[in-house]
């Protein structure tokens, strides 16, 4: 099989579980980050200066790219006989692909809020600390898919904010309800499927959860998500809270 199609399982068998196709913040990784940032900034600039009709078309185009990107991975793994339960789109970022699709079809504020509060930091962190490096090289379906889909997931809610949507700290309970409400069934689903969606079944394969394990131990690594979520929400909402507080002070 050509290296382009090889999955984690084949790579682990050939090179060992500790193999990484390129180092964090090495030349390839920094190039991917720079291209992703340039793409997001360029699209945001175009969206901000576009008419309402063009904005709608851009949002539909980004949504189609997200769906096609996710479908390409599933189809590639299936056609090469490598598909297993771990490729179900049940990680938080994969679920957010469908939230983007639903928002494009229905234009719901709860979708926009969830995408802003969870999708932007989650997808950005995935790009900064990728957990998909155990493939033969950067030129593989899994690596290219992972970089492109996470860049698109940062882009989509960024466009919503650039286009005028204003997140509100008052909607944080809705965001938390979505997060914990989706994580609970997935935690129990992981057991029979032998999967690790949301990284709830074990901490391995992800730099962040591995750090939680070093600090808290393997038994309690899940507790590391609580301060991490609180910090992410604080970073995402502090500017809006300050803006809201200042606007009240002027009235």
From TrEMBL:
Membrane in keyword set: yes
Provenance organism: Faecalibacterium butyricigenerans
Keywords from the named record: Membrane, Transmembrane, Transmembrane helix
Protein name: YwaF family protein
Endpoints of the signal sequence: none
Transmembrane feature ranges: 24-46, 58-77, 83-103, 115-133, 145-165, 172-189, 220-242
Phylogenetic placement of the source organism: Bacteria, Bacillati, Bacillota, Clostridia, Eubacteriales
């Amino acid at each position: 099989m050509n290296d382009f199609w090889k999955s984690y399982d084949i790579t682990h068998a050939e090179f060992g579980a500790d193999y990484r196709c390129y180092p964090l913040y090495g030349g390839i990784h920094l190039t991917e980050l720079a291209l992703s940032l340039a793409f997001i900034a360029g699209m945001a600039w175009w969206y901000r200066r576009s008419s309402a009709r063009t904005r709608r078309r851009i949002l539909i185009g980004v949504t189609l790219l997200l769906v096609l990107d996710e479908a390409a991975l599933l189809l590639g793994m299936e056609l090469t006989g490598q598909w297993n339960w771990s490729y179900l789109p049940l990680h938080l970022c994969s679920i957010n692909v469908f939230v983007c699709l639903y928002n494009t079809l229905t234009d719901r504020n709860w979708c926009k809020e969830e995408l802003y509060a969870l999708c932007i930091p989650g997808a950005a962190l995935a790009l900064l600390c990728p957990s998909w490096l155990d493939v033969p090289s950067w030129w593989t379906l899994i690596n290219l898919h992972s970089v492109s889909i996470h860049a698109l997931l940062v882009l989509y809610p960024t466009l919503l904010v650039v286009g005028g949507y204003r997140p509100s700290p008052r909607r944080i309970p809705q965001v938390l309800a979505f997060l914990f409400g989706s994580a609970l069934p997935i935690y129990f689903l992981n057991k029979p499927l032998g999967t690790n969606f949301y990284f709830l079944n074990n901490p391995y394969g992800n730099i962040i959860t591995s750090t939680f394990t070093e600090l808290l131990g393997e038994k309690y690594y899940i507790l590391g998500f609580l301060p991490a979520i609180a910090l992410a929400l604080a970073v995402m909402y502090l500017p809006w809270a300050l803006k809201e507080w200042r606007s009240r002070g002027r009235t």
